[in-house]
Each structure stands twice: as C-alpha cells, then as structure tokens.
Amino acid sequence: MGRIAPSVQTAPSVRLAELGDANDVAGLLGHLGYPCTRDEAFERIITLQDDPRHYLLLAEIDGHACGLIASHTRYSLTHGTDLTRITALVVAPSCHRQGIGRQLLREVERRARRDGVSRIEVTSNVSRLDAHEFYRRCGYSDGSVKFVKTLGD
Questions:
Q1: CATH at 115
Q2: Would you say the pTM of this structure is higher than 0.90?
C-alpha cells in the first residue's frame, strides 16, 4: 500500500474488524512485530468477537486497511472500577503521520467513556521510543513498569 493522503473523500474511517479482515489483521500485526498467518488472525478475530469486553477496530482509507487497535476492558481491584487496556495499536508504515493512530486511540477512548470506563492503560515495549512520545502527545502519562515472565516447558 502506498502512502495515502487523507482528503474529504479519503478520510480514515474506523470500524469493528470482521472475519473477512483476517489478511489485513495478519499484515498489520506483522508490522507491529507479531507476525501471524491469515488463519491465525482469523482465529484471533473470532476469539475477540465472542467477548463483548474486547474491541478490535480497523482503520481504513478508501476501503484499504491502514491501522488497527485492540482493547480489553476489565475490573481493576486496585482502582475499584473497570479500566480499559489497549493491547495492540499499529498503523501501516506507509500511512504514518496521517493522524490514523490518534484516530484509533480516540475511538477506543470514546467507546470506553460510553461503557462507563474512566481509565485507559497502554503498555509499550521499552525500545519503542517513538510510540512513547506518541502516547505522551495524546495525553497519556508514564505509569507503572511492567514485568514479564514467559511460561513454557
């Protein structure tokens, strides 16, 4: 996909991802560093569609996928209320700096407010310095440090 300059006709739109979007979801996850096949993406979409507390949203310009965001809302014992966690956000490299990431973020925020959520969290790999600056520019502040342990045999 080449760089698409938004205009009145090509302004990005955001919608829920559907099973037919599996190729696009797989490609976008690959851009994020989490490659998967179309079939794996298909299964992931099914899993998220079955849970009303998950959103998988796709951004499109003229019918071409250019970004995605996934979020999950859960109850937080420490905050005593629901919170939404963004679990993936990616914009195709050819579509960077067109406001698509910000639009996806704002749509998750809109849905969270509608669902009565007052806090959103997002984690980002320590090496993704550009992403950290993006989140700060969008009003997010640095928070907790995340620790990870991979379980396996």
A1: 3.40.630.30
A2: no
